[in-house]
Amino acid sequence: MGSGHSHEITATGEHRKRLIMVLVITGAVLIVEVIGGLIAGSLALLADAGHMLTDSTGLILALIAASLATRAATLKRTFGLQRAEVLAALGNALLLVAVGVWVLIQAVDRLRNPVEIDSRLMLVIAVVGALANLTGLLVLRPAQAKSLNMRGAYLEVLGDLLGSLAVIAAAVLILITGWTPFDAVASLVIVVVIIPRAWLLLREVVDVLLEATPHGVDLAEVREHIKGVRGVVDVHDLHAWTITSGVPVLSAHVIVDHACINEGRSGEVLDRLGECLGGHFDVSHCTFQLEPVGHQEHEAAHHA
């Protein structure tokens, strides 16, 4: 028996236009930074461009995943392809790690073997990049709390902004002092920004793939709310997990008293349970198995 089986548009799908807008901005700045980095001889600009390449790739993956996630469910894939968004976030995080490692290796080499840098051109391009990243942040900010992919995109653009600020600082210092290794130092700052963000995103993705309890859902509290419904005696086999961002689900075996069954109030109990979970814990897809007292003795005790 179940409650709340409607399949809604995923959080990323709702904000697809924002992703496209930021993708256009990021792609344009990526091209400018690659050309400028090669001409100016700046590793920091190339590092920021590499970071933006992963951003662009991640945004493309998110858009593809958002499109796949809107496909209707089938008998073989009963939740459709909604989890494609999570896989896209995983690929994005791995790309961030790869870029971070590459920049680290190049920055260490630049510290050992400094090169000539056109700091004026470096400064101009970094300012353009910072303004573009700030625009991207403003576009993504309203949606970043609703989806792993939107949050990942937001954090990437935020990291790009911090990276651009580091490049600006390095360019100014090179202009003042003439010491070009500041460019490599700025590249290392970008690495410091990239790696922790990649780790946080990976951790969230792993939680979803391992079907950990969604953030903000306290199963002990959920259990007490379920037991507070009239006619409910106890609850077991209680599970909550996330299909994709914005789609938490819950299932439970609910023991009801004999009066509930004899008086035909099972439907009423299901309605109250659905209202309880949807109202207090924002879990709209719930599946409940109603059982009479004593039925649990016939089940294997594998779950909480």
List keywords for this structure.
Alpha-Beta Plaits, alpha+beta, four-stranded mixed β-sheet, disordered N terminus, single chain, Alpha-lytic protease prodomain-like, 304 residues, 10 helices, 2 domains, 4 strands
Structural class category: alpha+beta
CATH architecture of the largest domain: Up-down Bundle
The main pleated sheet reads as: 4 strands, mixed
What's the CATH topology label of the largest domain?
Answer: Alpha-lytic protease prodomain-like
Cα-atom Rg, whole angstroms? Answer: 25 Å
Number of domains as seen in the coordinates? 2
Write the H/E string, N to C.
Answer: EHHHHHHHHEEHHE
Low-confidence stretches: 1-8
Helical proportion, percent range: 55-70%
CATH secondary-structure class of the largest domain: Mainly Alpha
Question: How are the strands of the biggest sheet laid out side by side?
Answer: 1-4-3-2
Give the overall silhouette. Answer: elongated
* SS summary, helix count: 10
CATH superfamily of the largest domain: Cation efflux protein transmembrane domain
Q: How would you state the average pLDDT, rounded?
A: 81
